[in-house]
């Protein structure tokens, strides 16, 4: 099912790319074969009539309200230090030592690579009738 979906999407992409190529070639052909368009005469427009601007109304001035004073807060000069509880001690655990493992040794000589091809025994063909 996924292969069908993928091939369907791929065919749509190919179809769109080929159609866009054909459209661009057709547009280029029209641009090259199209006759020149004559220029149109310029039209002069009459000037707009001037109108006086309306007068803007004045904004009335409102009296400023009188706000009550903010309450004052008294901050103490020194704050008491809180006493923190003591932290419990965590017992320390001792782990057993890891077993000593020896690292594998790396061979210093390279094995020889055979230069001849091994031969397979030749089997005779089956007897013919």
Question: Could you walk me through the main structural features you see in this protein, from its secondary elements to its overall organization?
Answer:
It is a single chain. This protein has 129 residues and is mostly helical. The chain has a domain at 1-29. Helices cover 25% and strands 0% of the residues. It has one helix at 2-33.
Q: Helicity range of the residues?
A: 10-25%
SSE series? H
Individual helix count:
1
Please identify the structural class as seen in this structure.
Answer: mainly alpha
Oligomerization: single chain
Low-confidence stretches: none
Silhouette: flat
Mean pLDDT: 83
Number of strand elements: 0
Radius of gyration: 49 Å
Strand content: under 5%
Distance between the termini: 52 Å
Let me know the largest β-sheet.
Answer: none
Protein name: Protein PELPK2
Organism: Camellia lanceoleosa
Task: Kindly list the characteristics that best describe this protein.
25% helix; 0% strand; 129 residues; mainly alpha
Please outline the helices and strands.
Blueprint: H1 2-33
Protein name: Protein PELPK2
Organism: Camellia lanceoleosa
